[in-house]
Amino acid sequence: QEMDEVTLQLKWVTQAQFAGYYVALEEGFYEEEGLDVTILPGGPDIAPTQVIAGGGADVIVEWMPAALAARENGLPLVNIAQPFAASGMQLTCWGDVGIESPEDLDNRTLGVWFFGNEYPFLSWMSTLGIATDGASEGSVEVLKQGFNVDPLLQRQADCISTMTYNEYWQVIDAGVTPEELVNFRYDEQGVATLEDGLYVMEEDLEDPEFVDEMARFVRASMRGWKWAEENPEEAAMIVLDYDETGAQTEEHQIRMMNEVAKLTAGSDGALDPEAYQITVDTLLGGGSDPVITAEPEGAWTSAVTDAALN
Amino acid sequence: MALPHIMERSAVTEARPDRSPAGSAPVISATDLDLTFRTNDGPVHALKGVNLAIGKGEFVSFIGPSGCGKTTFLRCVAGLEHPTGGTLTVNGMSPDEARRARAYGYVFQAAGLYPWRTIGGNIRLPLEIMGFPKAEQAERTRRVLELVDLAGFEKKYPWQLSGGMQQRASIARALAFDADILLMDEPFGALDEIVRDRLNEELLRLWDRTGKTIGFVTHSIPEAVYLSTKIVVMSPRPGRITDVIDSPLPRERPLDIRDSRAFIEIAHRVREGLRAGMVDD
Amino acid sequence: MALPHIMERSAVTEARPDRSPAGSAPVISATDLDLTFRTNDGPVHALKGVNLAIGKGEFVSFIGPSGCGKTTFLRCVAGLEHPTGGTLTVNGMSPDEARRARAYGYVFQAAGLYPWRTIGGNIRLPLEIMGFPKAEQAERTRRVLELVDLAGFEKKYPWQLSGGMQQRASIARALAFDADILLMDEPFGALDEIVRDRLNEELLRLWDRTGKTIGFVTHSIPEAVYLSTKIVVMSPRPGRITDVIDSPLPRERPLDIRDSRAFIEIAHRVREGLRAGMVDD
Amino acid sequence: MRALGPVLVVLLALLALWYAAVPVMNVQETLTRAERAGAVIEPASAVERRDMASIGLALRNAGQLGEAWSLERPRLPAPHQIAAEIWASTWDEEVNGRRGIVQSGSFSNRSLVYHAGITLTATAAGFAIGAVLGILLAVGIVHSRVLDLSLMPWAIVSQTIPIVALAPMIIVVLYSVGVQGLLPKAIISAYLSFFPVVVGMVKGLRAPDAMQLDQMRTWNASSAQVFWKLRLPASVPYLFASMKIAVAASLVGAIVGELPVQQGGLGARMLAGSYYGQTAQIWAALFAAAALAALLVWFVGWLERRTLRAMGGPA
Amino acid sequence: MSGARPGPALAVPAFAGLAALALWSATGPAALALALVVLTALAGWGAVAALSARGTAGTGLIAPLALGLVVLVAWEVLVRAFAVPQVILPPPSVIAATFAANLPTLWGDFVQTILKGGLTGYVIGCGAAFLTALLVDRYDFLRRGLLPLGSFMAALPIVGTAPILVMWYGFGWQSKAAVVVLMVYFPMLVNTVAGLADTSAMQRDLMRTYGASWGSTLAKLRLPAALPFILNGLKICTTLALIGAIVAEFFGSPTLGLGFRISTSIGALDLGMVWASIVVAALAGTAFYGVVALIETRVTFWHPSQRR
Ligand SMILES: Nc1ncnc2c1ncn2[C@@H]1O[C@H](COP(=O)(O)OP(=O)(O)OP(=O)(O)O)[C@@H](O)[C@H]1O
Ligand SMILES: Nc1ncnc2c1ncn2[C@@H]1O[C@H](COP(=O)(O)OP(=O)(O)OP(=O)(O)O)[C@@H](O)[C@H]1O
Ligand SMILES: Cc1ncc(C[n+]2csc(CCO)c2C)c(N)n1
Ligand SMILES: [Mg+2]
Ligand SMILES: [Mg+2]
């Protein structure tokens, strides 16, 4: 039987954040759907949007702000599924410097991820009425945070961006007690944006065969996700086996899997239009320099999930 | 005072072409040769009105102060430089044709052996380039090595030989393809006097044995007198011939000949010619 | 045949020290000088049992085949090399003390001018180092430039001068600080015969005018004979003195003197001495 | 061997300096840990300590610095920590580890041996491409005046472009035209290594002086003969000198190329170490890379010696 | 020989005409565009060959510009003709437009990365290397002990050192300067040491005959003799310094700088901005290199390599 080839480009390195796809691959869920899937790990400065534009992938895992920004820049990406129901991004601060509420952020130095991940932060600051051009009254100093949590540990920044499932635990692993830290979940600040969705090129969706292929892909992936939620330890081990850098540790990946499961828990793969609207509103409200200037049209479709889930 | 003296010599020079030995056509013949280099600082008149005929089997030395055009003349003969006026023939051909016909061997001032080739390899180099068959290459290499007294050193590398031996190897290389003409530009300039004496003796013997026509540039008056059948004295700016001296010395020349009356007289005349050229300058 | 001849000369040499002119203490005096270089290939015996006394105002030439130790001896005198045996004094001091007392000027084989300094700057170099006042530096520079006939070239860079002019500048540099002893290691080796002749004449004149003591290394027999009051002939491996010839030529020496009987005889004796050394080897 | 003495002395001095620097560099973290463990620190809070000079802080709390040489996330790890990490991620992992070569039959992806192997392959491929390209360009430049005039300035400009910063994009673009795996890394590696080769090789091919070229003319040699028999042999010493620089550049290129791809290699290892704050792992990978570079340079030097000897140079 | 070639009178207009034609065809059929690009390149070759055969003054400048022009035309035409997505490779015209529209931003990045990070690191690194070289030259022990270890240090790849230095020296330009110091230190050291050793035994002996001290030998002989090497080192280090400063910004930076701009713009798929930043880097690098090369020709005018 002829297998359909699908290439998936991840947003980041191989880790439990992408456990569902690796599980689906390892457990043969893709194969059962007649798919021959290749998973390409991402990495720093690899833009999945660019990869798909160049034809290097059929479908990508991307965060919605980056996908919508790309759409405005002339790359028509469409969300076909949203395995992550909730956002895991937060700002983690030292409590002992006197930060308790968002207002206390004024005049601080903050570490932020750029590379398309800065939009929710900028939008949040704009709703708070805080500028981002240097540590002074009514403004914060923004650092382009690198790949790790050192800026916080070294106290080069008062707060840094973390994911609930990853960097936060690295801070804890470094010996910091949860009591010393204050977390601001973007979810709770009302500036949540959708993370880790599946995106394809708009023109590809005109082909019913491709839609069918994607439906099977999403179905198998969601099976993978649910399997991973139920078997976090096995899932983490599968991820570890696929990690070619050999840098991940079992303990950390199992914990990450457990945390990720909380974010995927509410999702069957279908995009929640309400969450989509919050994301769009957040991005449109990005202050003087919004990420997107107009309400996007056709940036998501339920055609694939409809086919997949029925 | 010096001027009429030169004029007289020049007159003699110009009369030469018909005087080449045995009346046969000269091997190298230059008429009214001119060469001007174009440089950034303006033209350099390197050769002016040079007339010279060299007959078969002659040993001709060129002597003159630095920059007088000795090298330039030799290079013209070799087809490495192109005269801007006058005519020059080698074996009746143009110098370029002669070069392509491999009519001559050229020995540069420094030995210029390739350090990555053995002595044998260095001597084989022109033979390879000229496409001699392998067996003949070996045979010729053996023969010229013997000729310059370097048999047994074929497998050695240049740095394993003394300066004098290197220079002999370089001469062997020029001899290997057996051109009738040998052009040598200060081949012994870098050697000390004693080694030089020995090589001079050997060169004379070689010339005697092979009957080649030799053009030889030198700065040393005794060397020029000792070696040549004909000494061409040149003066600079623009380079021209001020004197051509036919040597009365016999073909057989022991080194002692340098203490002879005749030798000292020719040397004196050469020195006078050189000084005249300087004063004239 | 050669051996007794050398022995005889050596005997004469050893008798020398007491024979220095005017009976005054010699400026340079070597007794049983030995020098062995330790190299990776084993020791090189560069000087062996050298005995020599040079009196004030003498012009002493050193001649011998390549590698016989001429340079090494001069360097010992200059305190640049340290003998491994025997004693050597310069002006009654050790060579090192003499060096620090700036007792001599040294001229190397190649001109060795610093390309980043003008001719004037090069001549000023030793003066700067020795801490002469600015005004005197200028004055001395002017004077020695005139002495070597280079007035007007003070602002030029070395490469803008011919080889002969560079060599003269290098001599001027050695003269600038007016040491009583001048040590010259083949200063004219790289020059052509005509330029060399002229520089030889000028050097003689300078020596005559200043009364300096000069040690002069050369490869050229005529040069040695023409210049010296005393010619030291050396032979190699291990380097030793085979002959010391006191020249009967007068102090006044036109270039023509080289065609004279006396000159030719001395030259002959030098050549014989050199050959003997070679055969002996 | 004679050189070993001074190297050892300097090395020991550096090590001593290093050990002395460790408590100063790590003072903040060490004191924070001591504070969490209940010790009395002066000043008492991390916020107060934040902007203080490290040396002063270290001196005032000299008694609390015992842990500085064994922190898990040090700013500056102690040499023995790095040594331990290198040991653990080479011998120990391969011999005793579950994925090591002893138990699994292939090199463990957690060992530096495995990653050095990946990097070495990319480096070798990149170096080969870069060297060949550099030599070809040099041949073109020496033989064509047009290329000489127009290409050389651009070769210089090419080196002012921060290719290292563009590596991710280049890999993506290459990916889109179907080039993947070893080749993209090799291309970046080649980009960094071709330049020294061009410069050195042009110099080498032009090393024969006018006399040697004239000599060839007197024999009426063709330009191919001049190239093979004169220019090429004469350029060998220059070629090797520049290849030593190029091979080190190749290694840097390969490491840079590995960063975004994250499919193994010392570069991926360094980044992962940085990403997870495993300082010792970065340092170990760093030292492995430096050792690899030294090895490669030594290898080129060895090739050089062999070639020159085969060409008859003084041994 | 040269008479057989078309003169510049023919080749130059042909080149210009073909370039224009190629640009005009950019949105037409790909094959035609490709053919025109090849023809343009050939005409450019002919023009440069004709100019250089004549030895026309300024060929040294015209030739590289002609090649640059050929590359730009080919780039523009091929990107358009083959409809390469802008998010993969934008055409030069788009890059130029972005460049022009973002001058203030790019200027700020230039100041941050090149002037503050690159130049400071360059000065400190080269200066430290120079002083070390003097020490190494003075004490043979250090030469034999330090240089082998130095070559080990030179092999430390920037991608490993940059995160560490950002951790040590913070996010500002200081850490970038530190990365640059580490990058330029060794090449500069090696060159200076080689230069200081590049005196002949004769030149050194000459100083000894003057009874010169170490200091005056250094000032009057070794330093001047080392200048060509020192300047060569300085020249090599220019490009290293810029690359180091830019790359280090990938590992943490404030919200400006060329490295920051490049990485952020890739994330936003603003490829025009990416390339505009690269243009700034290349211009700055070439200018920096050019300035040092110019100083080199001025200061070492006496060196044979500068005299022809
Ligand atoms: N390629 C060249 N371009 C310009 N001028 C040249 C060139 N070759 C030689 N000259 C000049 O032509 C003149 C004659 O030079 P040539 O080399 O023939 O002299 P020479 O007699 O061989 O001198 P030497 O004894 O120093 O070798 C000199 O003034 C020299 O500077
Ligand atoms: N530094 C050294 N180390 C080892 N051997 C040396 C050294 N300097 C000179 N020699 C050897 O000592 C011997 C004498 O050398 P020296 O330079 O004094 O000869 P020379 O008479 O000046 O020769 P030339 O006429 O070639 O200049 C030679 O065999 C030489 O190889
Ligand atoms: C250069 C760079 N920096 C930060 C992120 C943000 N980011 C997106 S997913 C992810 C993994 C979470 O553990 C992180 C850190 C990025 N993509 N690239
Ligand atoms: Mg000549
Ligand atoms: Mg000598």
UniProtKB/TrEMBL annotation, chains B, C:
Spell out the molecular function terms from Gene Ontology: ATP binding; ATP hydrolysis activity
UniProt cross-references to SUPFAM superfamilies, sorted A to Z: P-loop containing nucleoside triphosphate hydrolases (SSF52540)
ABC transporter domain location is: 30-257
Q: Which domain of life is it from?
A: Bacteria
Q: Does the keyword Cell membrane apply?
A: no
The answer to whether UniProt assigns keyword Nucleotide-binding to this entry is yes
* Entry-linked Pfam families: ABC_tran
Annotated region (Disordered), positions in chain: 1-26
- Which UniProt keyword terms apply here? ATP-binding, Nucleotide-binding, Transport
- PANTHER family, from UniProt? ALIPHATIC SULFONATES IMPORT ATP-BINDING PROTEIN SSUB (PTHR42788:SF13), TAURINE IMPORT ATP-BINDING PROTEIN-RELATED (PTHR42788)
What family, per the record? Belongs to the ABC transporter superfamily.
Q: What is this protein called?
A: NitT/TauT family transport system ATP-binding protein
Q: From which source organism is this entry?
A: Wenxinia saemankumensis
Upper lineage is: Bacteria, Pseudomonadati, Pseudomonadota, Alphaproteobacteria, Rhodobacterales
UniProtKB/TrEMBL annotation, chain D:
The alphabetized UniProt keywords are: Cell membrane, Membrane, Transmembrane, Transmembrane helix, Transport
- Outline the extent of the ABC transmembrane type-1 domain: 116-304
> GO CC terms on record?
plasma membrane
Chief place of localization: membrane
Gene Ontology annotations of biological process type: transmembrane transport
Q: What membrane topology is given?
A: Multi-pass membrane protein
Q: Where in the cell is it found?
A: Cell membrane
| CDD domains noted in UniProt | TM_PBP2 (cd06261)
Question: Which PROSITE patterns does the entry mention?
Answer: ABC_TM1 (PS50928)
Which SUPFAM superfamilies does the record associate with it? MetI-like
- Superkingdom as given in the UniProt entry: Bacteria
Q: Do you know which InterPro entries this protein is assigned to?
A: MetI-like, MetI-like_sf
Q: One Pfam family this chain carries?
A: BPD_transp_1
Family in the record? Belongs to the binding-protein-dependent transport system permease family.
Q: What is this protein called?
A: NitT/TauT family transport system permease protein
Source organism of the structure = Wenxinia saemankumensis
TrEMBL record, chain E:
The lineage's top-level taxon is Bacteria
Q: Which InterPro entries match?
A: MetI-like, MetI-like_sf
Where is this protein primarily located? membrane
Domain named ABC transmembrane type-1: which ranges? 126-300
Decide whether keyword Iron-sulfur is in the record. no
Sorted alphabetically, the Gene Ontology cellular component annotations on this record are:
plasma membrane
Q: What's the protein here called? A: NitT/TauT family transport system permease protein
Recorded source organism is Wenxinia saemankumensis
